[in-house]
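Next up, sample data.

:::
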Amino acid sequence: MSKKVDSIDPKIIDELIKTYEKPEDLWGENGILKQLQKSVLERILEGEITTELGYKKHDSKGNNSGNSRNGYSEKTIKCTSGELPVQVPRDRNGDFSPQIIPKYQTRFEGFDEKIISLYSRGMTTRDIQEQLQELYGVEVSPALISNVTNEVIEEVKTWQSRPLDKIYPIVYLDALVIKINEDKRVTNKSFYLALGVNLDGQKELLGIWISQNEGAKFWHSVLIELKNRGVEDILIACVDGLTGFPEAIEAVYPKTQVQLCIVHMVRNSLRYVSWKARKAVAADLKAIYGAKTLEEAELALASFSEKWDKQYPSISKSWETKWTNITPFFGYPEDIRRAIYTTNAIESINMSLRKVIKNKRVFPTDEAALKQLYLALRNISKKWTMPIHNWKDAMNCFMIMFAERLSGEI
């Protein structure tokens, strides 16, 4: 059993609250708790300088010791109880460096985490300022918020270069377009995301990359980086319909089966369909990708073409053009299909990210957008505690279909 921690002497508490009449006396700007925090902090600082100098205040040992106390400087500390003015003792030689409040530090540990937490949820700088003022009575500058969140960039660099697993059964590749203020004009930039599903069925974001626009050539460089970080094989890569994407994957991972993302195909197909016809078109598209076999899918596509080509000729043409990278889907057992399609992992992430960045229509720099995405993704990934649904069944199918490539890895 753990040792019971002694509570504070009730007599001390009685002395502290003897002037208490209303809640404000306890929680207010000059309330008991804030004064107690200030007193305890200053008492610790006195103890630290005593340890540093080797003698107590007013002790004769300090005479001709080579260093001595030299009054106080006032420092205002930002903490979750508000702004706290503290008297920090000084020494004549300037050697004293407090441990509890290091030199140049004006915020208690934990306060920065508050700022980062608010920022990660998509709040603007002004929103964060107002929130901290309202909750804690603390005024913070835009520069402080920027400096605190900028500390995340080093964490991003370490995360982005970490070693990865040798094999990922499924990797989703997609890009999110974000507006960036660059050279005094707003430009669209693509932020590339690679989401892996490892052998245990756990989702893992492999990295974030930035480019002027989405293109197969850039995706090729992303895949090269993944290989350099230890990814030797990808069984199935789920991608959007970008021209040249399958070839870019094949150049780096020649054995990888490229599967066009069904969600992207459906969304693109419905983009120009009227609201009145959308439900019917969506149902007929489902008959294609929901088919049990390739033959059924081909018949469903032919039926769709016959029914809708006069009104929306581009839809069936798009499916026919990309049929080669749609059809692998029908060669998989139901358990793998479900893992690829019904999870819609990358789509779920993109939806969550769009909610976070919607308040920031334009980011001032690439780094500002990158740290926002990283922090948001860090929050999202905290929910990834369980493997993909029915992953054991899917993995059994993978072991049969890809026995050679998975040999020795399970």
The CA atoms of residues 288 and 298 lie 7 Å apart. The radius of gyration is 30 Å. Strands lie at 69-79, 82-91, 167-182, 185-197, 203-211, 233-239, 257-260. Confidence is low (pLDDT under 50) at residues 1-5.
